[in-house]
Amino acid sequence: MISPEGYYEMELKGKSAEEIAKKIRGLKNEIGHLKKAIEVQHYGSKTGFYPDMRTQLWSARLYLERAVAAYEETGETYQPSKAEQRAATFDEAIPTITRITVTLGGHFDGFETHTITLTDDHLRLDVEHSMYPKPSNFYIEPDYLLTKEEFLDGLRDLHIGEWRRHYNSVDYGWYILDGTSWTLTIEYADGRKIEREGSNAFPYNFDRLCELVGYEEKPEDKE
């Protein structure tokens, strides 16, 4: 993949605002297609791509940032979409998060809940399984070696503000009984709470969230 500046030299330099706006629309469409393609991979054999689709997605985001900057360098003002505004609002509120809870599992194996509580000086991870009578509680730092800011940076990299409210395998043409369900709950210092959930379907980077909050198994390993 080329660098953002390389992309600018090849695709944007000398272009009019209208031409750059067209590039921006194309990059946004590409990002949407890549996210959907990664999610669909969950249901079938993973076709080989080089570079892999996650790398393509990462690069497309960088190109989009550079394209927006180039557009504004022409004297125009970029107007983000409603979806982009929602994502930006989520990112701005990340420093005020006080608790994150992820519950993952199914009817037969039970549900495992990981709760990250954020305070001024540390992170605490509480783990509970519905099949076990007692939860196991421990601090996150010794196991993950993350500071609070590193943990929040990990959240920023997930772009959760772009996630849909609900994911279902039916949306991908798969009808699955039982299987795996999940819920993500995020609580803020002002008392607000948001939730995302799914049934046998996951956002394109849900496995990264699971790693961040201490799950040892990927969602597909639980099915």
Describe the protein in words.
The chain is an alpha+beta fold and 223 residues long. It is built from seven helices and seven strands; from the N terminus they run H-H-H-H-E-E-E-E-H-H-E-E-E-H. It has a seven-stranded mixed sheet. The radius of gyration is 20 Å and the shape is globular. The model has no long low-confidence stretch (mean pLDDT 86). The chain folds into two domains: 76 residues; 132 residues.
Tertiary shape: globular
Number of helices: 7
Q: Pairing-aware structural class of the strands and helices?
A: alpha+beta
Counted up, domains total 2
- What is the strand content? 15-25%
N-to-C order of helices and strands: HHHHEEEEHHEEEH
Report the span from N to C terminus.
34 Å
What can be said about the biggest beta sheet? 7 strands, mixed
Number of strands: 7
Low-pLDDT segments:
none
Q: What is the percent of helical residues? A: 25-40%
| Spatial arrangement of strands, main beta sheet | 4-3-2-1-6-7-5
Mean pLDDT: 86
Question: Measured on Cα atoms, how large is the radius of gyration?
Answer: 20 Å
